[in-house]
Design goal:
With about 400 residues, the chain is of the alpha/beta class. The chain has helices at about 15-20, 30-45, 60-70, 80-90, 105-115, 125-135, 170-180, 200-215, 240-260, 270-275, 305-310, 400; strands spanning about 10, 15, 25-30, 50-55, 75, 95-100, 115-120, 140-145, 165, 185-190, 220-225, 265, 280-290, 295-300, 315-320, 325-335, 340-350, 355-360, 380-385, 390-395. It binds pyridoxal-5'-phosphate (PLP).
């Protein structure tokens, strides 16, 4: 399937009818695209014992997690909140990995007690893990490979100055702690960043991990993280999964041979699995012909989709109501009382007040990063799968906004 140039329906469900039924803004997900992405990844690594652990911070809707689980995909969580949501979606303890980032050790303890396997991300946590569990509980170690990869500096996580993981330069210290507590290290992990399109970045980081792996005799798993890039624009370059799969598989098989045993290869993508499946549907409210430029205001904002303002990320916008309109150039802006720009100088079919617009690539880091800023309700969500649309989250109400406030009046 190619990048959509027009969009009026998903599977056979009309988007304007969905919006009439559930209102706007509305998150809509296409289950077929999630199935396609899982299949792509599985096919690319079909020669290996490859396991996918969905990085669910991308989208924690229970229906999405249930769908992924039904496709044989495990889950990677970063908090106890996510762990509980994954459990609610049917994930058993053996299927959950916990990849914390400097969290209180109490939280790690809770995760271990819930049966999750932990990616240890600091020497301090490794020391605590040793003191607390010794050889009793196996764990993985998250290494920082000192490889700069990813779409921009804000979403890189494996470079030298990143806070994530334990630097491979500290391998001696790691080994000393492992030995002192007879820790059972069953896996090495790395995650170098997001929007990585070059296979070379993965290969470079994997070489660092393979090299370190020689020092750990009990390994069962090499986890190469997530971060595969998807298409944001027509003709955008993406991670060539078949090429990446072939290249990594070659390196991995060679590594397993020299290690002396076949290990499992894990990936934990978020974006790759769900980004393209999601659309944020909004309505154009006001078209403002300012002398400087023309603004399209929509009934949503950075409270519902913060990626453009947070990372400068690009979301393609399709005019669902007027796909054949004459092209015109707009700044598309939200209704939040802050600078709230979705798109600058964007040429698209003429937008008229009331038109329905679709933001693409809204399936990952869309709803999960949304907020109630400006006391706005978060949108409803709909999953379309096997030609059926299901409401998978209702729109919020005033009661939701007031629920945790203690009104002492
Ligand atoms: C966020 C995250 C991922 C997923 O990144 P994507 O770019 O969405 O694939 C994977 N692993 C870890 C540890 C993460 O924090």
């Amino acid at each position: 399937m190619s990048f959509p140039r027009q969009l009026t329906s998903v599977q056979s469900i009309s988007l304007s009818e969905l919006c009439q039924q559930y209102g706007t803004p509305l998150y809509v997900y296409d289950g077929e695209i999630i199935r396609r992405q899982v299949a792509r990844l599985q096919e690319a690594f079909s020669g290996l014992d490859m396991h996918i652990k969905y990085a669910c911070k991308a989208n924690t809707n229970l229906a999405i997690m249930r769908l992924l689980r039904s496709l044989g995909v495990g889950v990677d969580v970063v908090s106890m909140g996510e762990l509980h949501m994954a459990a609610q979606a049917g994930y058993g303890p053996g299927e959950i990995t916990f990849t914390p980032s400097g969290v209180p050790f109490e939280e790690v303890k809770e995760a271990v007690e819930a049966g999750a396997v932990v990616n240890v991300d600091s020497l301090a946590l490794l020391e605590w893990f040793g003191e607390t569990y010794g050889s009793e509980k196996p764990c993985l170690i998250r290494l920082k490979p000192n490889v700069a990869a990813g779409g921009n500096i804000k979403i890189m996580t494996g470079h030298r100055d990143s806070k994530f993981g334990i630097s491979v330069d500290l391998l001696d210290k790691i080994l000393e702690i492992v030995e002192r507590y007879s820790l059972k290290i069953i896996g090495l992990h790395q995650h170098t960043g997001s929007d990585i399109k070059e296979a070379s970045a993965f290969l470079q980081a994997s070489e660092v991990i393979f090299e370190a792996a020689r020092h750990f005799p009990d390994l069962q798993i090499i986890d190469l993280g997530g971060g595969f890039k998807v298409a944001y624009k027509p003709d955008d370059e993406v991670t060539d999964m078949a090429h990446l799969g072939a290249e990594i598989s070659k390196g991995f098989q060679k590594f397993c041979q020299s290690y002396g045993r076949n290990l499992q290869l894990w990936f934990e993508p978020g974006k790759f699995l769900v980004s393209e499946s999601g659309y944020l549907l909004v309505q154009a409210t006001v078209v403002k012909e300012d002398p400087a430029r023309t603004f399209v205001h929509v009934d949503s904002g950075l409270n519902h989709l913060i990626r453009p303002m947070m990372y400068g990320s690009y979301h393609h916008i399709l005019n669902v109501s007027n796909p054949e309109g004459n092209p015109s150039t707009y700044n598309v802006v939200g209704y939040i009382c802050e600078t709230d720009t979705f798109a600058t100088d964007r040429t698209m079919p003429e937008v008229r007040p009331g038109d329905l617009l679709a933001f693409l690539n809204a399936g990952a880091y869309g709803f999960t990063m949304s907020s109630n800023y400006n006391a706005r309700f978060r949108p409803a969500e709909v999953l379309i799968d096997q030609e059926k649309a299901a409401l998978i989250r209702r729109r919020e109400t005033m009661d939701d906004l007031l629920r945790s406030q203690l009104d002492l009046a």
